[in-house]
Amino acid sequence: MRYFFESGNFSEISLAELIAVFESFNLPKDSIKKVSNTILLVESNSITKETLSMIFDRLAGCIRYGQVIDDLDSFLSPYLERKKVVYGISILGDSELQIKDVEKLSNEIKRGFRSSEISTRFILPKQKELNAAQVINNHVIENGFELCIFESNTGRMYGNTLAIQDINAFIKRDVERPSVDFDMGVLPQKLAHIMCNLTGLKNGIVWDPFCGSGTILMEAAVLGFDVLGSDIDLRALESVNNNIQWLSKEEIIKEVKYNVFYLDIHNAERKLLKDLKRTGINAVVCEPFMGPPQKKVLSEAKAEDLLNSVRNLYKSLFNAINEVSRIGFKVVLIVPSYKTSKGWLTFNISELVGKKWDILNRKYGQGDLKWKRINSIISRNIFILEKR
Ligand SMILES: C[S@@+](CC[C@H](N)C(=O)[O-])C[C@H]1O[C@@H](n2cnc3c(N)ncnc32)[C@H](O)[C@@H]1O
Predict the structure, then answer these.
(1) Which atom of ligand 1 is found nearest the CA of 180?
(2) 386 lines ligand 1 (CB under 6 A)
(3) Measured in whole angstroms, how far is the alpha carbon of residue 364 from the centre of its chain?
(4) What share of the chain is helix, strand, coil (3-state, %, to 5)?
(5) Are the CB atoms for 198 and 382 separated by under 8 Å?
(6) 214: left (phi over 0), alpha (psi -120 to 50) or beta
């Protein structure tokens, strides 16, 4: 069986997330192949559809997934048994096909159904592909199909969408959560979700030592982790309480064990670290500090200044993590990179953490894991580390 996953805007990150979630299900990563900029193919006869559906439900970096269609006629034939079919056609990725090609194919399909006296409703994509709302609101998957067309390194391929990302759930958590303080700096909800998945774990205890209003903790809780949050800012701890309780109240999560506490990472007491070690934390997921928002390209000196202050935070962070972690402990964290007149400046995380930690980024993809909008001055570089 072959399946396709369509990645979101940051395709290297989507690939890394898919591989990490496969790992958390004990599935081999070599069944995943990137066949174009946005398409990941999974080839396996042993992975069940139910498992793939559970995997897709955990992802934030993929927009849709489905089954590859080997023969269009045999794919369409079961629909000839129905009275009515709702269907849509989407062109994924960088295919040269245009909307007029979609219309042509749709008309051919429609003629086939009409000749068998089947009524049809065709949903035309607004751009080249149907958006999630079009697929969900028109019940395309339940009452028919979304036919996807995409290019791969071996030629044009067709696929049948099995599920599309529940974007409304992410928007709801982002917009409706009761407490958020943008001055503290807030991670995009999807990035927080992806970072939790990049631990390669399905459950366990995640600690965010720079929790802010708790974006990472919320997403970790949604994925089924128990969560610990700490911050130097007492308002942040209050916000986390509000947000996690809101998740329960809204029945987004059933049950979560969580705790929040004050901690200045530069002054972590030994007793506290010992207690944390006893708690059996499995992973730290965090964004320590990105510096203030920047509108213009920075001077080298300014970027160096910012990086120096950030570097100290990371040093203290790893002093603490070294005390609470055991072999196999995972850390997923963001390191900022600043755009200067002389190019991008960042610091070397492997020098900072030393030999006790393996950097796993290469295991999860070929390129850097950068979450960066075009024209932005600060890039978020994601690192995945494992204790030796
Ligand atoms: C980028 S924000 C984290 C935002 C959070 N991920 C979110 O999306 O809500 C960084 C956080 O680090 C906290 N912080 C800064 N210095 C700290 C320190 N020395 N010890 C602990 N927390 C600190 C800040 O109070 C802030 O909440």
Answers:
(1) 9
(2) no
(3) 13
(4) 40, 25, 35
(5) yes
(6) left
Which residue range is the domain that position 295 belongs to? 179-387
What gap in Å lies between CA 276 and CA 283, rounded to an integer?
12
- Compute the distance between CA of residue 20 and CA of residue 194 in angstroms, rounded to an integer: 10
DSSP 328: T
Q: Are residues 159 and 184 in the same domain?
A: no
Does residue 218 share a domain with residue 97?
A: no
Residues 306 and 234 in one domain: yes
- pLDDT tens, 54-112? 999 999 999 999 999 999 999 999 999 999 999 999 999 988 999 999 999 999 999 99
Domain limit, last residue, from 136, 165, 194: 165
Say if ligand 1 is within 6 A of residue 186 CB: yes
219 CB near ligand 1 (under 6 Å): no
Judgement on whether residues 196 and 90 belong to the same structural domain of the protein: no
Report the number of distinct structural domains present in the chain: 2
| Residue 188 to residue 219: CA distance in whole angstroms | 11
Please give the torsion angle defined by the CA atoms of residues 131, 137, 141 and 145, in that order, rounded to the nearest 10 degrees: -60
The amino acid at residue 336 is P
Over 90: is that where the pLDDT of 357 sits? yes
How do residues 175-187 score in pLDDT, each as one tens digit? 999 998 777 678 9
Distance of CA 309 from the midpoint of ligand 1 (Å): 13
Q: Is residue 20 part of a domain?
A: yes
Separation between Cα atoms, residue 41 and residue 67, nearest integer Å: 10
Query: What tokens does 58 get?
Result: 């955990």
CATH number of the domain to which 294 belongs? 3.40.50.150
Contact 147, 89 (CB under 8 A): yes
